[in-house]
Amino acid sequence: MTEKKRNKQAYTQVKxxxxxxxxxxxxxKAKERSLSLPKFSxxxxxxxxxxxxxxxPKIDKQQGKEIIRQLAxxxxxxxxxxxxxxxxxxxxxxxxxxxxxHNLEQIxxxxxxxxxxxx
Length: 119
Hints:
Layout: H1 3-6, H2 22-32, H3 37-50, H4 61-87, H5 94-118
Helix pairs in contact: 2-3, 4-5
């Protein structure tokens, strides 16, 4: 076995995605520093970690689970309304339409509340 293979460290590969707009910018910055894109990316992340530039998540894991649960309930409500409307679309009275409009407004408010928690 060669010396090179014996000293080789075990690495973990990390992948992330860039948009079509971001990729040329990252390639240009890497080129300016005479680095490959993977080396440049690693350097940027290491600098962000050492300089404390990585932000803490706005919500913790438990809050995230609660938001997911609430979104699932809202999705269920929307599906029930859609199913009912599709089943009874020819017999909807103005009063029923008004009630659905009110229910949809309540759902919109619930979604707005959840969105504010994420800001």
